[in-house]
């Protein structure tokens, strides 16, 4: 009943239509997308590492994590160093994950955000509940701004998708920036190619 | 209590006021730095404002379109005419699932509706999971800022609160230590609660999805672990198409904190398998505001808080002095629509300097609206009697030149010869400042001598 009343009230009171603006000229950036991505990521508490191949990534992970650490991935190529058969489990079972390795569709230079969707997350909660997050993207998959990003995903179909930019953070205690609020405490992006 | 009276309380601790003032100004400067990096910044603001204008003119159709698409996506859609209906809808969903404990991420709408109190009265425990909101919740205070809920507190206060409620070491005020303690405390809540409530930053008509932005990841931790996800939104959160998010997400975090984007910008389109997802679309006075030509632009607000960080009155009086869920300049133009007599003081809590309007990412004419609300409130009989008396005295003085001339002379004589008569607590202008030296003569006297 409220639905009809609310909608009727809106119809009565809404102003005349004005046309939508065109979304052109909104990217006036001059930077190199890859370099900008790396700089911004560092500024927001993440880490960018350029690698030539997956083996280099595995070596870096082996150096930084112990065999007792629970590592999960959705990438078959990393099946030798991480679990990749957890996607149908109850999401709560991921509470003890130390590192989650995923790929992203692409990154955005202006804010170092990475676009990921349900199909590459395995479980929606995976990139949030893990203590540390590693994301892999090809070096040439960096869009300059959010406008190019949304051009890419304008028609995309997903149940859930998110832009992730760096580790979770808070400044709610006297404006002191602390990394690791509720989501991952660290985020490393491997730029491959 | 009125804004001016509540400000007196806040102003008792001068050091703290200075700290509050400087900290928010520092956030404002971070916003400037982020904005100036984009040559297209002003074009972005103009574009965002125009998109929102289009939204206001097509709200009916966009909402119908949004609802149809959300339903297609498997989301249940509810409509609430007011705060009470909103609270009852949320309660019904929780009751149906036998839920007695819920996690909630930041939602100013639920503050506006006083949902937590309502659910508590009905035996349901709500845990606020944004760190700042959890801090103020433990202290039984409302948030004092829409983006920085605990900005009125110092780390000593948080340390003491956590010592009492979370058992942290007495006297430890290290933000890293305290944040880690909150992380552990709230992780247990995320893992055990069956229902999660989130706000909505943007709802997209074209796709029926909604976007929630956080830095902490608390909205996602709650929603992805819960069996039931309830998202509550004021109907003005709607935008036409997904591509418009590009404009708003570029503006939101830069305006709010100077970040290029929030850590997480999550797009919820369908419930995950086995999950129930609900959207509650709330009016609560918004359709009335939509009909007020002078004030409808306030519905463009994307809740970045930039107008608060820049406001000289907000910075020196604190968010609690606004006695409204949304404080600061934007709160002061939204609140009179909700309750004119209760919030009649708020449009007067401004110097009309216009700084809020200058930083607003969707170009709301905030200070003009503050000025216009004053006219409306006085016409409707909500003027402060003291102010009214003062205005009448001033009208009389200004329309009688002799009275004006003598009044000035007498005033100057008293300020010079009996300063204790003006420099005392009975004179509101003397609060937190000294009265200026009186001039030797008025301009009129000088002119008569020198023309």
Structure description:
- The complex is a heterodimer of chains A (193) and B (451).
- Chain A has six helices and eleven strands.
- By secondary structure, chain A is an alpha/beta fold.
- Chain A has a single domain (29-192), classed as NagB/RpiA/CoA transferase-like (Rossmann fold).
- In chain A, a hairpin with a 4-residue loop joins strand 4 (106-108) and strand 5 (113-117).
- Chain A is globular and about 65 Å long.
- Chain B is globular.
- Chain B has two domains: 3-286, NagB/RpiA/CoA transferase-like (Rossmann fold, 3-Layer(aba) Sandwich); 400-450, no CATH class.
- Chain B is of the alpha/beta class.
- In chain B, strand 5 (202-204) and strand 6 (209-214) form a beta hairpin.
- Chain B starts with a helix and ends with a helix.
- Chain B is built from 21 helices and ten strands.
- Chain B has helices at residues 3-10, 14-36, 41-57, 59-72, 83-96, 108-112, 115-121, 131-138, 155-166, 175-192, 218-225, 245-256, 286-291, 306-310, 312-317, 328-338, 355-359, 366-379, 385-398, 401-417, 443-450; strands spanning 76-80, 101-104, 125-128, 195-198, 202-204, 209-214, 228-234, 238-239, 264-268, 276-282.
- Chain B has a six-stranded parallel β-sheet with strand order 1-10-7-4-2-3, sandwiched between helices. A four-stranded mixed β-sheet of chain B has the order 8-5-6-9.
- At the A-B interface, helix 1, helix 6, strand 8 and strand 9 of A face helix 2, helix 3, helix 4, helix 8 and helix 10 of B.
- Strand 8 of chain A pairs antiparallel with strand 9 of chain B, so a sheet runs across the interface.
- Chain B: GO terms for molecular function: 4 iron, 4 sulfur cluster binding; metal ion binding.
- Chain B: Keywords: 4Fe-4S, Electron transport, Iron, Iron-sulfur, Metal-binding, Repeat, Transport.
- Chain B: It holds the Pfam family LutB_C.
- Chain B: It comes from Pseudarcicella hirudinis.
- Chain B: This is L-lactate dehydrogenase complex protein LldF.
């Amino acid at each position: 009943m409220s639905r009809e009343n609310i909608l009727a009230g809106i119809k009565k009171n809404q102003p005349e239509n004005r046309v939508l603006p065109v979304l052109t000229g909104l990217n006036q950036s001059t930077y190199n997308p890859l370099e900008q991505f790396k700089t911004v990521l560092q500024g927001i508490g993440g880490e960018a590492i350029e690698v030539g191949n997956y083996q280099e990534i595995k070596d870096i992970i082996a150096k930084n994590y112990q065999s007792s650490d629970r590592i999960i991935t959705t990438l078959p190529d990393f099946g030798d160093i991480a679990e990749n058969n957890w996607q149908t489990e109850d999401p709560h079972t991921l509470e003890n994950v130390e590192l989650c390795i995923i790929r992203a569709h692409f990154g955005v230079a202006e804010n170092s955000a990475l676009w990921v969707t349900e199909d590459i997350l395995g479980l929606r909660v995976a990139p949030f509940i893990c203590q540390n997050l590693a994301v892999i993207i090809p070096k040439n998959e960096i869009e300059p701004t959010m406008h190019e990003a949304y051009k890419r995903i304008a028609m995309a179909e997903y149940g859930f998708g998110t832009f992730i930019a760096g580790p979770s953070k808070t400044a709610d205690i006297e404006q002191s920036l602390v990394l690791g609020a509720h989501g991952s405490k660290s985020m490393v992006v491997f730029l491959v190619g | 209590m009125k804004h001016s009276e509540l400000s007196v309380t806040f102003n008792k601790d001068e050091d703290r006021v200075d700290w509050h003032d400087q900290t928010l100004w520092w956030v404002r400067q971070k916003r400037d730095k982020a904005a100036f990096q984009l040559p297209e910044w002003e074009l972005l603001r103009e574009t965002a404002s125009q998109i929102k204008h289009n939204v206001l003119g097509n709200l009916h159709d966009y909402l119908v379109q949004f609802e149809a698409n959300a339903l297609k996506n498997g989301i249940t859609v509810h409509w609430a005419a007011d705060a009470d209906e909103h609270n009852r809808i949320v309660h019904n969903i929780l009751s149906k699932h036998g839920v007695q404990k819920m996690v909630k991420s930041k939602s100013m709408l639920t503050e506006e509706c006083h949902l937590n109190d309502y659910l508590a009265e009905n035996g349901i425990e709500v845990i606020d999971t944004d760190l700042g909101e959890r801090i103020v919740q433990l202290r039984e205070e409302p948030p004092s800022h829409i983006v920085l809920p605990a900005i009125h507190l110092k780390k000593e206060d948080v340390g003491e609160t956590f010592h009492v409620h979370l058992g942290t070491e007495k006297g430890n005020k290290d933000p890293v230590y305290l944040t880690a303690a909150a992380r552990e405390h709230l992780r247990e809540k995320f893992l055990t609660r069956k229902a999660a409530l989130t706000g909505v930053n943007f709802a997209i008509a074209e796709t029926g999805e909604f976007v929630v932005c956080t830095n902490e990841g608390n909205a996602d931790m709650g929603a992805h672990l819960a069996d039931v996800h309830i998202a509550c939104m004021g109907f003005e959160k709607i935008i036409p198409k997904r591509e418009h998010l590009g404009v708003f997400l570029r503006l939101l975090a830069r305006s709010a904190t100077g970040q290029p984007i929030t850590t997480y910008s999550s797009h919820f389109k369908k419930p995950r398998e086995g999950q129930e997802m609900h959207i509650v679309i709330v009016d609560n006075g918004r359709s009335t505001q939509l009909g007020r030509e002078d004030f409808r632009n306030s519905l463009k607000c994307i809740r970045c808080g930039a107008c608060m960080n820049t406001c000289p009155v907000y910075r020196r009086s604190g968010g609690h002095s606004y006695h409204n869920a949304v404080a600061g300049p934007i709160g002061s133009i939204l609140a009179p629509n909700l309750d004119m007599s209760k919030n009649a003081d708020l449009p007067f809590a401004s110097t009309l300097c216009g700084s809020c309007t200058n930083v607003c990412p969707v170009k709301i004419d905030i200070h003009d609206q503050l000025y216009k609300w004053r006219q409306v409130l006085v016409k409707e009989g909500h003027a402060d009697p003291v102010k009214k008396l003062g205005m009448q005295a001033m009208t009389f003085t200004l329309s009688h030149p002799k009275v004006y001339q003598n009044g000035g002379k007498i005033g100057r004589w008293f300020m010079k010869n009996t300063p204790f008569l003006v420099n005392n607590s009975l004179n509101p202008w003397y609060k937190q400042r000294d009265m200026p030296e009186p001039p030797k003569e008025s301009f009129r006297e000088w002119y008569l001598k020198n023309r």
